[in-house]
Design brief:
- The chain has about 150 residues and is α+β, with helices and mostly antiparallel strands.
- It has helices at about 5-10, 25-35, 70-80, and strands at about 15-20, 45-50, 55-65, 85-90, 90-100, 105, 125-130, 135-140, 145.
- The chain has 2 domains: about 5-100, Alpha-Beta Plaits (2-Layer Sandwich), CATH 3.30.70; about 105-145, SH3 type barrels, CATH 2.30.30.
- Helices cover about 15% and strands about 35% of the residues.
- The strands form 2 sheets. It has a 5-stranded antiparallel β-sheet with strand order 2-3-1-4-5, with no helix packed on it.
- It binds zinc ion.
- Zinc ion binds near residues 111, 113, 140, 143 and 145.
Amino acid sequence: MTTQDKTMEVRLIENGTVIDHIPVAALFKIITILGLDGDTEHRMTIGTNLESKRMGTKAIIKIADRYPAEGEIDRIALFAPQARVNTIRDFAVVEKRHVRVPDEVRGFVRCANPMCVTNHEGVETAFRVVAEEGVPVLKCRYCEKTTRRF
Ligand SMILES: [Zn+2]
């Protein structure tokens, strides 16, 4: 694919967000994180198993007229640390952002420890993000147990 073709592909939306370089296996996680599975309002294009020089295959999400919040971008980083979040205005990329794995995650992930207070007393979960063999895992602030699947 030529550079021009790639640009054309991105330019299909007038205003909105393109999330590029998503690992194919993480695509549906990211759809869930952004609540796109229940979104009946925004125009979206989702591509998967696309060719990528860097990754072999990749997935891409284009959403018209929607811009993810900081917290959402941090969550994307947990599953797709190499993702790029591009902001589109008037068919042009006005901002390209690398996502960054956050230091802390609140809510949205459940603690793996069934005895943890967050699983019983309606306490919001809070985790420190630590790397384990290069993979981010979550360490509970309440019970110190590590959650690896989220
Ligand atoms: Zn816990």
